[in-house]
Every structure is written in structure tokens, then in C-alpha cells.
Design brief:
This protein has about 240 residues and is of the alpha+beta class. It is built from eight helices and eight strands, in the order ααααββααββββααββ. A hairpin with a 2-residue loop joins strand 1 and strand 2. It is flat, with a radius of gyration of 27 Å.
Amino acid sequence: MVELWEIFWKSMTIYLLLITLSRLIGRKLLSQMNFADFTVAITIGTIAGSFVATTTQKVWVLLSIVFLSLAAVITSLITTKSLAARKIIEGEPVVVVQNGRVLENNMLKMRYNVDDLEMQLRQKKVFNLNEVEFAVLEPNGKLSVQKKSQFQPVTVQDIGKPSKYKGLPTELIKDGDILAQNLRQNNLDFAWLYNELNRNGIRDVHDVFLASLNTDGTLYLDLKQDQMDYVQKVED
């Protein structure tokens, strides 16, 4: 029982300490780490693991994994229910570029430098700060970017043309099984489905890997054993 208590308090201490240190180190720990950040993260993890494992004997140390997992689940539930807790544990989005101007004070608070900003902008295919209207550093360390209107791609709405609704397709057959509920939701029946399969030269529904109905009324079909002349390879 003494060992159980020792494992518990050590695990919770390490968990709280690591969360605190992660918040102090900043969001770069989550998004892009340089060599120094990587070295610190690996060292902290090694020391934390050693703290629990070295003074605990036999299989008791495995309970640390259970306690840490439970702590993560509980933390997730707390942050889901409480906005205040979410702000403390996860942080809030921070604006680093506003109306095209870099907010140096906000970047300093996040320990976020201009090289980090430019790198993440390039990852968004933005190579010129002059194109940026707003840039927000998210709690997960990623950068959300809104370009100035003159640098945004033209949409159908911009040129004054009507656009068609494009929703999600409805799966009708998955791995050879017909999804009857989805058929009914679209006011379709088995006769219609079998007729469509026959029209596409498919005699057995079990040969179908996936069939989905697009919002424009077209039916996508993929067979389990596709006959292809050539299969593209990604590797060299």
C-alpha cells in the first residue's frame, strides 16, 4: 500500500510539473521546436521518468502509466466543462499580426520571435508580411492567417455568380453491406439501388467496397477488387 501511494503522488507531481513547465516554455513546444527546445524536452521527459521509476520496485511502476492516463482524462473533462480551467491549462489564442502590423508585445509574452512568425507564414504559403491582415497564434502553437482582401483568391460570390450547394455525400454501401437507414433518409429503396448497380454492371452487392450518393444525385462506386492497369507508387 505504501508503494501504491508513492507511485500515485510521484505520478501526480510529475504530471502537474510537466504541464506547468510546458506552459512556461511556451507554444513552440507544441508546434515547432528548435534544437534547444528539443534537447530540453527530451531531458525533462527522461528525468521525469527516472524520478518515478528509480525508487519504485517491480511491477508497481507500471501503475504510473495508469495514473497519468487517468489524470489526462480528468484534465480533459475539466477543460471541456470549465472555460476558466481551459484558459489556465491550454491558454488562449493570441493575435500577433493585426491590420498588417506585427504586435511585438504579444509576441514577447508568448516568447515568439519574428523568425517563428515568418516560418509559420511560409508554411501557410505566405512569403510577404504585407499580405497579412490578421495572424493568430493558437493554443496548440499553430498559426491561423487571414490575408488582406486583395491577396485572397477570387470566389464565385466575388464575381456575382450563383453557386450550387455542396454538402456531404451519403454512404449507401460500405464493405458490401447496404446501409438501409441511409437509403430511407434519402427517400430511396432497395429496388433503386439494385437498378443502379445493374446499370453499372455490378451483379452482387458484396462486390462493392463503397457506394455513396453525392448531393448532385450522382452515385460513387468503388469495388473491392478494382481492375487497374497501373498502380501508382509514391516511393522511388
